[in-house]
TrEMBL record:
It comes from Shouchella lehensis. Substrate binds at S251. It is an enzyme of class 1 (oxidoreductase). Mg(2+) 2 binds at D190, E226, E230. The gene is ilvC. Belongs to the ketol-acid reductoisomerase family. NADP(+) binds at Y25, G26, S27, Q28, R48, S52, G133. Residues 182-327 form the KARI C-terminal knotted domain. It catalyses: (2R,3R)-2,3-dihydroxy-3-methylpentanoate + NADP(+) = (S)-2-ethyl-2-hydroxy-3-oxobutanoate + NADPH + H(+); (2R)-2,3-dihydroxy-3-methylbutanoate + NADP(+) = (2S)-2-acetolactate + NADPH + H(+). Mg(2+) 1 binds at D190, E194. This is Ketol-acid reductoisomerase (NADP(+)). Its EC number is 1.1.1.86. GO terms for molecular function: isomerase activity; ketol-acid reductoisomerase activity; magnesium ion binding; NADP binding. It holds the Pfam family KARI_C.
Length: 342
């Protein structure tokens, strides 16, 4: 079994006396900055002028233009959107990477796919929470945490792994468990997970279920509750106790249906497609396409995004959630709204 690091295994002292610059104050950025600050770490934030700048200031941070923040810090955590990172790195971070500093990421994309090539005399590592930033923040405030991965790409100081572990501990990840990996493994598994299972696979499953019921004449509101709203309640049980606990809680009728229907939905064909998706990731085909899509100003991304927002599932869901004030809406992932509450 792999070594899993918990709080007691980690010496947070490796961050003592170091200033950490959090570059970006979005989903991950606000969570890392606030969790580190509340763990006693000296944190500054690097941004461009705009909404996030104001939000980070409201949250009590000293905020600087990216280059100034990178200049002031020993540990520079890059929490900008992946596609923005290479340009900002070239313009404002590279020049501030004096020997012995640490360049840090929450995802290995730009290092693994050679979009950022750091100098050899700095530490380069990643601390990648295995969960959305708003949950990294929310769980931390609740005394819990989201698991994380660390990986060292360059160890110029001889302390890169210890600093990575200390960072992971101070954002709360070692409360849940931290594993060591490589940039390659983190990048490929993260892309696969979000595409095939967590985001792509789940969204497609929910939509197909909703459409099947509505096309058969059932009420959209019932289809929404059945295929989307209740998914959270079912996944919560899996989170707490695996498939076993979910199946313990559901009826035996549902469990028999699960055994019979599941393999008809996720078939050998589906698994073959999953393997093809993984292959595209491993060979760099997905990365190449995403980089190109951004160079072209995201024509396909924007068109799909608009169509998805207008899908009947989303329309009916918005109306139903209005009547459920207890369902939190962390509305603007990218907009630094409601970051404090997750
Ligand atoms: N989202 C998640 O939960 C997870 C993300 N990651 C990784 O974490 C990293 C950050 O992702 P995520 O948190 O989603 O990013 P976001 O899209 O939430 O980041 C947006 C932030 O970046 C700022 N920003 C964007 N462009 C620039 C720029 N050119 N110059 C300065 N600031 C800029 C925005 O400021 P402004 O308000 O001015 O636009 C905002 O503060 C990525 O590497 C991602 O793969 C890893 C695990 C999970
Ligand atoms: C599942 C999506 C994710 O990988 C994440 C929240 O971990 C991301 O890139 O946002
Ligand atoms: Mg992820
Ligand atoms: Mg990801």
């Amino acid at each position: 079994m792999a070594k899993v690091y918990y709080n007691g295994d980690v010496n947070e002292g490796f961050l003592t006396g170091k200033t950490v610059a959090i570059i970006g104050y979005g989903s991950q950025g606000h969570a890392h900055a606030l969790n580190l600050k509340e763990s006693g770490v000296d944190v500054i934030v690097g941004l461009r002028q705009g909404k996030s700048w104001e939000k980070a200031k409201e949250d009590g941070f000293n905020v600087f233009p990216v280059q100034e923040a990178a200049e002031k810090a020993e540990v520079i955590m890059v929490l900008l959107p992946d596609e923005q990172q290479p340009e900002v790195y070239k313009a404002s971070i590279e020049s501030e990477l004096t020997p012995g500093k640490a360049l840090v990421f929450a995802h290995g994309f730009n290092i693994h796919f050679n979009q950022i090539v750091p100098p050899s005399d700095v530490d380069v590592f990643l601390v990648a929470p295995k969960g959305p930033g708003h949950l990294v923040r929310r769980t931390f405030t609740e005394g819990a945490g989201v698991p994380g991965l660390i990986a060292v790409y360059q160890d110029a100081t001889g302390e890169a792994k210890d600093i990575a572990l200390a960072y992971a501990k101070q954002i709360g990840a070692a409360r849940a468990g931290v594993l060591e990996t490589t940039f390659k493994e983190e990048t490929e598994t993260d892309l696969f997970g979000e595409q095939a299972v967590l985001c792509g696979g789940t969204s497609a499953l929910v939509k197909a279920g909703f459409e099947t019921l509505v096309e058969a004449g059932y009420q959209p509101e019932i289809a929404y509750f059945e295929c989307l709203h209740e998914l959270k309640l079912i996944v919560d049980l899996m989170y707490e106790g695996g498939l076993e606990y979910m199946r313990y809680s559901i009826s035996d009728t549902a469990q028999w249906g699960d055994f019979q229907a599941g393999p008809r939905i996720v078939t050998d064909e589906t698994k073959k497609e999953m393997k093809a998706i993984l292959d595209d990731i491993q060979k760099g085909k997905f990365a190449k396409g995403w980089i190109l899509e951004n160079k072209l100003n995201r024509p396909e991304y924007n068109a799909i995004n608009t169509a998805e927002a207008n899908h009947p599932l989303e329309v009916v869901g918005r109306e139903l959630r209005e009547m459920m004030p207890f369902v939190k809406q962390s509305k603007q992932k990218k907009g630094a709204v409601n970051h404090g509450q997750g």
